[in-house]
Amino acid sequence: MAPEPSRTEASALRSYPLGRNRSHVRRPRSGGQARSASVAAFLSFLWPGLGQRYAGRPRAALRYALPIVVLALAALLMVVFALGLLATLIIQPISALALVAILVLVGIWRVVAMHDAMAGLLSREPQARKRAMTVFAVLAAVVVVSHSWLAYATWTFHDAGQRVFVGDGPGGTAAPSIAPGASAPPLDDYEVPPFATPETTASRVSILLIGVDSAENRDTMLTDTLMVVSVSPETGSTVMVSFPRDIADFTMSTGAVYQGKINSLMTYARRYPERFPEGPLGTLAQELGYLLGVPIHYVAAIDLDGFRRMIDLAGGVTVDNPKAINDPTFAWADGRRGFQLSAGLHHLDGETATAFVRTRKSAGDTDFDRSRRQQQLLLALRSQMVRAENLPRIPELTQAAGDTIRTNFPSDRIGEFLDLARSSEGLDPQTVVLGPPYALRAEGTADYRLRFDMDRLARKSIELFGSDSRYASQ
Fold it and tell me: pTM of the prediction?
């Protein structure tokens, strides 16, 4: 039996009178067939099934397109309405592995759909066939590379999340004492269970941010950066409160007076564990929360050296320096001395940004100014991280975050807070530094220290936190 003529041949035959010699029928050029095969492959590259529809195979088109439509709709709904849920799924091991597998399978499905779309349109002429296969190979390579990158980015989120959120596993323990001359404790020594649990998901959540300097040329544990970030899920409002390191002689929750400076409390609690059963970090969080008027539930320790790397990976940060800085005593990691920065807008790399938040001996500069710069830099980095040009750097940024941050914040709430951040986008956090008039310089002391004006502090706490403040009921 003679083979059935193709659709193109049949059309050509109909254009000739009956009985005319079929040897005179003009067949379509092989180049046109190659272009048709390439177009079909390209259309299924854009969306599986489009190439089959172009080739006149509607059933095959539906078969290839439908699974991708379902997945795309699910992904779109998550991005638009439940981005936080997607983030939570990425962090959890089982769901993260499933997402990686889905990305790989979708990539394979696209390649199969492209090949199937072009297979019936390939020319028998070697050169035309070669051109069509070259187009297919290029498109397939794009699919493989892009899906491999997406799968890798997803897995880096998961890997970083497993290292950042340390409060989910077995309870951490307090860091051991630092022997004289020993190096600063690693970031993992800050892994502790949550201190308290908010009463409901609508309750205010407060997180203590502390700076950890683990650079090779440092031999002490620094808690000079003490910042509380408090979020109200009901209103979406955020408050950032910095405690100057020289606050001293304050009343603790036990009623006793701590006569040292606040940045030494962790070391003191570590030295006398029988008096501070909550451990060093737990003690610091408890007493800062008591002073501020709201309980602190979680802690996030940020390694300053890793923070510098994150800023570089994000392409630097832009800050508006309120006044000129000229600190001749500032010590760089490479041994240089001195740091200068004029007033106004500056785009800072990681090293310069770190100097910006650490310098404190410029003329007219104070610890209060440094605390304000720390708040300013955190907000600037947040803005820089979400810029579109940083999308290709997502794997490196997430890995850097995994090396830089440790928190006992529960990972199953990260999605909730991401959704909250999106809903409150455009609302600037309220920033406060508890220097004067809330803390005033103590008179008659051998060293520089600040003492709280408790009446002013209580009024400020009520202003910031309303009925959530313990001072509101006193």
Answer: 0.70
